Amino acid sequence: MYTISHILSHSPVTTVTALAEQVLQHYPADAVTIISGPRVAMVQLRMQESVANSVFNAGEILVTETRLELNGTFGFGMIIGNDPTFATALAVIDAALRLPGAPHADLHTTINDLGDQLRTNQQRQFAAANSTKVEFDVF
Amino acid sequence: MGYIAARGGTTAIINAEQLVEYLRLQGGSTPLELIQIRDQLRHAVGRAMNEGALYAPMLAALAVKQAEGDSIEASFLLRAYRSTLSRIMPTLPISGEAMRCMRRISASFKDIPGGQMLGPSQDYQIRLLNNLIASETAESVTAVLAAYEQLVDAGMSADGAIGHFPKVADYMRQQQMIAPLPAEPDTSEPYDITRTAISFPCPRSARLQSLSQGDTGCLLTYAYSSVRGYGDAHPTLAELRFGYLPIQVAHPLTGEAITIGEISATECEIVSKAHSVAAKQSTPRFNLGYGFTFGHGEVKAISMAILDSVLTQAKAKGLSGESGPAANEEFVLLHSDGIEASGFTAHYKLPHYVTFEADLKVLDRAREHTTTQSQSRLQEIATRTQEASA
């Protein structure tokens, strides 16, 4: 079962942007206040290694981050890569889904559909790799 | 010839930069698009990312293009760009077990839980140049994409799997072949060599961070030296996996885990021989070494895991026989950063007129000293000869 952020971060930017636009059409332009960003920055990858179960810094990952408020509700969007539109769309959806009274509960249907598409795509990708599974002959 | 300090050369430098661009484009070929480099030179892009310690495929493609394929220069460009960015936060710790595997093999056991999956690998091909790639057409590309559909059909499983597998190391632990994990996980803040210069003895987290951004060729050389005879490494590949790791950060308001996408990565575990256990009084077990890189970097991940294993054993005084340079943690970690090493070596191309003038003065003094000594010896011989004649 994928989480909402997992589904959205793996979905096409055009689809996620369309979802955010769908939310924004219910609000006037001044309902959105940008707190910071969109900005390109880094997050530091923390890997948990398998020898001593310890954590180490394995390098930086380029991300784009946006923080905003939608009708006074905080929204956070972060995506790997340089994509201000994607990060802002994620922040809008994040805020929309935590607005009091759940006015955008209808988004869940679309997000669930995106999740189904994601699972199908990942199953297909794995299937191609799985075709290289070795069947050993034992002499 | 006089040797003097000098400054200048601005026009020459600007012209040199223009000449580089001219040489790149003089043949009239179509300029490479970054997306072509990202997709079709993925190993070059991966190497630039893991040695530059910045996961950014499109920027790495730009770096590869700008460096005209020079891997160290490309990683240098990325590392320099990294210094211009702010770091927002660390990710939540992620284990390789979360990887959506595209390739997963073991040389330790034939039957590993989940099976062996070769994935996208050239390991099993004969190393012959493929002229068909030199003359690819739209039709041949279409044929390759159509063949992919056949692979999907051939490998589709009914259980809806997407490539998650248990770790071979966990199986070995269950069988008590390798040391158990610590009862309490190490929750201390990992060392960050980008903020604090590494000093020795260093914690494990500093070693792994340093190796993971090390130069592939250098790690390979050190690991190979230890395996070949200038060391005590006898590695066996427990598991090598390549695939996609989901990355999560903590939501700044709620603290819940937020997925921000996935990265391609390679992870490796190496086991080494049984007598090399840290605590001699405990049950003999294999030693385990760990390797990780951004992108698809199998040789680097294996080399890193071998070195991790060797350095752990050396620290625990568990090596027998020749330890070799690869067992010296300070030597390995301080000389394996390709950017530092190439930067230091390349600086010899810069003017050293003042330094060399000082060297010349030393040389002159040495010559004067030698001449004086020689003359005094000759004078001594002449004096003795005159005395003998008298």
Summarize the structure.
The complex is a heterodimer of chains A (139) and B (390). Chain A has 139 residues and is an alpha+beta fold. Chain A has helices spanning 4-9, 13-24, 84-97, 107-130; strands at 32-48, 55-70, 73-80.
Dominant shape of chain A: globular
Helix-strand string of chain A? HHEEEHH
Total number of domains of chain A? 1
Cross-sheet strand order for the largest sheet of chain B: 4-5-6-7
Distance between the termini of chain B: 48 Å
- As a percent range, the share of helical residues of chain B equals 40-55%
Rg of chain A over CA atoms, rounded to whole Å, is 19 Å
Return the average pLDDT of chain A rounded to an integer: 95
Number of strands of chain A: 3
Structural class of chain B: alpha+beta
Q: Which residues of chain A form runs of ≥5 with pLDDT under 50?
A: none
Please give the count of helices of chain A. Answer: 4
Major sheet of chain B:
4 strands, antiparallel
- The helix-strand sequence of chain B is HHHEHHEEEHHHHHEEEHHHH
> Segments of chain B where pLDDT lies below 50 for 5+ residues?
none
Greatest contact between two chains: A-B, 54 and 87 residues
| Number of spatially distinct domains of chain B | 2
In spatial order, strands of the major sheet of chain A run 1-2-3
Q: What's the story with the biggest beta sheet of chain A?
A: 3 strands, antiparallel
- What is the molecular shape of chain B? globular
Evaluate the radius of gyration of chain B.
28 Å
List the defining traits of the structure above.
heterodimer; A: 139 residues; alpha+beta; three-stranded antiparallel beta sheet; 4 helices; B: 390 residues; 2 domains; four-stranded antiparallel beta sheet; 14 helices; 7 strands; 46% helix
